[in-house]
């Protein structure tokens, strides 16, 4: 959640952030009032407890014949202390419930508005031009035996698929390329759980307004994760970390699950928006003052992959109203999809500052010896969706697809995917 001190001392900063997101500003005032009540209740409890301690010493020092007369006062004061403690607990819970609804404070410079108000930071690469009518990824994928949508739907329903033959190998090649690059950048690889407890899912901010996107198993009280970010954020929950200057970096390889509720009719053709996919996710724990530099570094790794795969793409600064509750800033990289004549998101990277760490109680020890929340960041380095842009960008007139040179070592030197 947000820093309670920031809320108390600079509420206008919080109001401005909520306003930029299109979220409730009134919530800030409600949280401030709850904070005032919370601190008053805690003070009352502490004063009564101090009085109780002092009275206890007086009773202990009293002559034996006077102690019996003081018993009634001891009991009455104990009851008052217990009631004050309950009021303080209730006030604390009420404040936390409100404060946890306030979204992360957006970083200065993030564009205001909704999904359509993003700012394009740059366009990179040359959009492919064909002297033939380009096929879309569905036609290419099915003709070349890369995936099977019909059998995926037969087995599991809409928006499921089989990656078949070279398609399965192509995804593994992408993931292994990303893994090698993450290793070179100092990331520790993890294969993460894809089922997590409610406190882990909630701590990362995925049970708010987008809870309907998450698969839930009520019999086990577990959630299926839509990204390994969730497990990676929970990896150090409740810990005090020794964070080096370069941070702690992890690369999580996992299958991901998303209900895609409310997206009917939107990018539903093929494997662009599906319920299950694989992904390699970068995740960093850094000192708060290094978070923005780490954000740029994660974006750089993503752009390096896209460039080396020969994809034309753009980088956008996502508008505040389109950020998840945990993100203070998010950059999306969107690849050009020729059949649609538009850009489609392939990766995103988010700076969550200390928001997730506060919720998950992940801290580091400062030079003064006190503890403080770390900053967390995440960014996708490869996922199944990349196959869409690869097929359409590198297709040939005869329906074959050229494999980018950087992927060939992971495919036994194969240079071309051809119809059999």
Secondary-structure topology with pairs:
Elements lengths: L3 H6 L1 H11 L4 H36 L2 H36 L19 E6 L12 H7 L3 E2 H8 L5 E2 L2 H19 L3 E4 L3 E2 L1 H6 L11 E3 L4 E3 L4 H6 L5 E2 L6 E10 L18 E11 L4 H18 L4 E5 L11 E9 L4 E10 L3 H6 L2 E3 L5 E3 L1 E9 L2 H8 L7 E2 L13 E2 L3
Parallel strand pairs: 4-9, 8-14
Antiparallel strand pairs: 1-11, 2-3, 5-7, 6-7, 9-10, 10-16, 11-12, 12-13, 13-16, 14-15, 17-18
Helix pairs in contact: 2-3, 3-4, 5-12
Verbal overview:
This protein is of the alpha+beta class and 420 residues long. Helix content is 40%, strand content 21%. The protein has helices spanning 4-9, 11-21, 26-61, 64-99, 137-143, 149-156, 166-184, 198-203, 229-234, 291-308, 355-360, 386-393, and strands at residues 119-124, 147-148, 162-163, 188-191, 195-196, 215-217, 222-224, 240-241, 248-257, 276-286, 313-317, 329-337, 342-351, 363-365, 371-373, 375-383, 401-402, 416-417. An 8-stranded mixed beta sheet has the order 1-11-12-13-16-10-9-4. Strands 5-7-6 form a 3-stranded antiparallel beta sheet. Strands 8-14-15 form a 3-stranded mixed beta sheet. Strand 14 (363-365) and strand 15 (371-373) form a beta hairpin. The longest helix is centred in the first third of the chain and has 36 residues, at 26-61. The protein is elongated and about 105 Å long.
